[in-house]
Write a structure and sequence with these properties.
By secondary structure, the protein is an alpha+beta fold. It has 14 helices and 11 strands. The chain has 3 domains: about 50 residues, no CATH class; about 90 residues, Release factor (Methane Monooxygenase Hydroxylase, Chain G, domain 1, Up-down Bundle), CATH 1.20.58; about 230 residues, Alpha-Beta Plaits (2-Layer Sandwich).
Length: about 425
């Protein structure tokens, strides 16, 4: 490159690079040396956008660094447990190839879901490793031929591989035994009367829209209308891969601050609603339920049910007296179907209850459900100031309408990354 070509100070940082050159012992650095120093500093800081703006940008240097990093992550200690997952994939595949496995359709279906998940992880890691090797070889050839077009093409491939790695890294956070399962989402209005009941209804809509945007199926299995507006409580059955893993950190109290539309004076009100997540438990998971511990009540359904709505006692409420856990279902078309669904939900709630007993932090969150108020909130929605803040992660958003329309991934991702 001609030494007389002016250095782009805006992108390379001329004065900053001169200071770096003095640090590295260059008294009167040449243009090439300045560019090399700037590139070295950028790559060390992983500032790739800055590095790409430098005329002597050598992508192979970053690929080598990235390859070393990836190899350490994927195979040297294996934060993705690559070898273990590959062995498990082979084991599951052998089981599914056995015709006798289909004598138990539920177990076979469970194995099929596990194989699909393992195939995604193993194939992604294999593709990343192969892609990095190909990119390195291609760039070495492109540099020899001074082919800028090929260099740009490989840069795009690197961006794609980085996105794939980030997606894989995010999926690694779904490490809980129940994370792949469907979920039950319970919403309960708290302090604030009609305002709190309206707030519970807003949260219900938010989660329904979120589920829709992720391609999950969401069915309202029980709902209790508010006295004036909104809802007192609701239960939603959310079905989809890793539904519980996605939503489990949403458990807690959500606080709303706004000028209430139900206050003729237009005063500012604070109200609360709680959200509680539990995983759907399949029949292969044993949860001991003593029938004598259950109180079963039936009542007339106010939801879907065709000709039986409000004419027969088809809705079912089950109370587990030792724990005080109450579940209800009115969304099915017969009392028998509602009872079966309520028992599945009770099984999930009892499992979650047991897990919380073994974990002090979760137990504290469970105890806080009895007092939905100031001390147990996880997220604050201050609509007057256009500010929504997660009190655990510090993540904030000023686009309240977008968040309440279901765009809550930024809060979920941050909480999962922090291991909440």
């Amino acid at each position: 490159m001609p030494s007389g070509r002016p250095l782009d100070a805006g992108r390379v940082g001329f004065r900053y690079t001169m200071r770096l050159s003095n640090r590295y012992g260059f008294v009167r650095p040449t243009y090439r040396q300045l560019c090399t120093i700037a590139l070295y500093d950028s790559v060390v800081r992983s500032d790739i956008d800055h590095a790409r703006a430098i005329p002597c940008w050598k992508p192979t240097r970053f690929i080598t660094r990235l390859r070393t990093c990836l190899s350490g992550q994927l195979f040297l200690g294996g934060i993705f447990d690559y070898a273990e997952k590959k062995d498990r994939l082979e084991e599951v595949t052998r089981e599914l190839e056995d015709p006798n496995v289909w004598n138990d359709p539920d177990y076979a279906q469970k194995l099929g879901k596990e194989r699909a998940s393992l195939e995604t992880i193993v194939a992604t890691i294999d593709d990343l490793e192969q892609g990095l090797g190909d990119s390195r070889d291609l760039l070495e050839l492109a540099e020899m031929e001074e082919d800028e077009g090929t260099v740009d093409e490989v840069r795009q491939e690197l961006d794609s591989m980085q996105a794939a790695l980030e997606k894989l890294e995010f999926r690694r956070m779904f490490s809980g035994d129940m994370d792949p399962n469907n979920a039950y989402l319970d919403i309960q209005s708290g302090s604030g009367g009609t305002e709190a009941q309206d707030w519970a209804n807003i949260l219900l809509r938010m989660y329904l829209r979120w589920a829709e945007s992720h391609g999950f199926k969401a069915d309202i299995t029980e709902i209790s209308a508010g006295e004036v507006a909104g809802i007192k409580s609701a239960t939603v059955h959310i079905q989809g891969d890793y539904a519980f893993g996605w939503l489990r950190t949403e458990t807690g109290v959500h606080r709303l601050v706004r000028k209430s539309p139900f206050d003729s004076g237009g005063r500012r009100h604070t109200s609360f609603a709680s959200v509680f997540l539990s995983p759907e438990i399949d029949d292969s998971f044993e949860v001991d339920i003593n029938p004598s511990d259950l109180r079963v009540d039936t009542y007339r359904s106010s939801g879907a049910g065709g000709q039986h709505v409000n004419t027969t006692d088809s809705a079912v409420r089950i109370t587990h007296e030792p724990t005080g856990i109450v579940v209800a279902c009115q969304g099915q078309r017969s009392q028998h179907a509602n009872r079966d669904f309520a028992m599945k939900q009770l099984k999930a709630r009892l499992w979650e209850h047991e897990m919380q007993k073994r974990n002090a932090a979760k137990q504290e969150a469970e105890d806080s459900k009895a007092d939905i108020g100031w001390g147990s909130q996880i997220r604050s929605y201050v609509l007057d100031d256009q500010r929504i803040k997660d009190l655990r992660t510090g993540v904030q958003s000023s686009n309240c309408d977008k968040v309440l329309d279901g765009d809550i991934d930024q809060f979920i991702v941050a909480s999962l990354k922090q291991g909440l």
